[in-house]
Design brief:
Helix content is 36%, strand content 22%. It is of the alpha/beta class. It has one domain: Glutaredoxin, CATH 3.40.30.10.
C-alpha cells in the first residue's frame, strides 16, 4: 500500500503538468459579446493568449507592440483581461485594437486563465501550437522570430 501511495505522490503532479500542456477548455467573451473558446481557433493555426490589465503601464506598452505586429504575426492573438467589459472596450478603443487581423480582445469573466496557468505577473503570454499544445510562456510580448522557432520544433 505504501508503494502505491508513493507512486501516486510522484505521478499525480506529472499528470497535472501533462494536462496543462494542451489548450484548456477556457472560455472568454469578446468585447462584442461573442463566446471565445478553443473551437474558435482556426484549424491549423497557432494561438498566443495575452493576459493583461488595463491599468498596467507595461500592458499598455505591450498592446502597442501587438497592434503594430498582429497582422504579420505567426499566431492568432487573443488579448484577455479579467476586468469588466466596458473598461476593456475603452482600452481597446484607446489603443486602436479594433479590426486588426488575427487579434481579438476579450474578457475572462470567470478568471479561469489565472487559475489554469497560475502566473505571478502581468502581462502574461502563453503560446499554443496548431494542435493546441502549449509550447511556451512569456513575461513579455515574444518576437515573431521567437514564436517561429518554437512553432517549428
Amino acid at each position: 500500500m505504501k508503494t502505491l501511495f508513493s507512486i501516486l505522490l510522484v505521478c499525480f503532479p506529472l499528470l497535472l503538468s501533462a494536462q496543462k500542456t494542451k489548450l484548456a477548455q477556457l472560455q472568454f467573451i469578446t468585447t462584442s459579446g461573442q463566446v471565445l473558446n478553443q473551437q474558435k481557433v482556426p484549424k491549423g493555426q497557432a494561438l498566443l493568449l495575452a493576459y493583461f490589465r488595463t491599468d498596467c503601464d507595461y500592458c499598455r506598452h505591450s498592446a502597442l507592440q501587438i497592434k503594430t505586429q498582429a497582422a504579420s504575426y505567426p499566431a492568432f492573438i487573443w488579448m484577455i483581461s479579467p476586468e469588466e467589459s466596458d473598461i476593456i472596450t475603452i482600452f481597446e478603443e484607446m489603443n486602436g485594437l479594433y479590426s486588426i487581423p488575427g487579434l481579438v480582445v476579450g474578457r475572462d469573466h470567470s478568471k479561469s486563465m489565472h487559475d489554469w496557468f497560475q502566473f505571478e505577473a502581468i502581462p502574461f503570454y502563453v503560446l499554443f501550437d496548431d494542435e493546441g499544445k502549449q509550447v511556451g510562456s512569456f513575461g513579455q510580448f515574444p518576437s515573431s522570430t521567437e514564436i517561429q522557432k518554437l512553432l517549428s520544433k
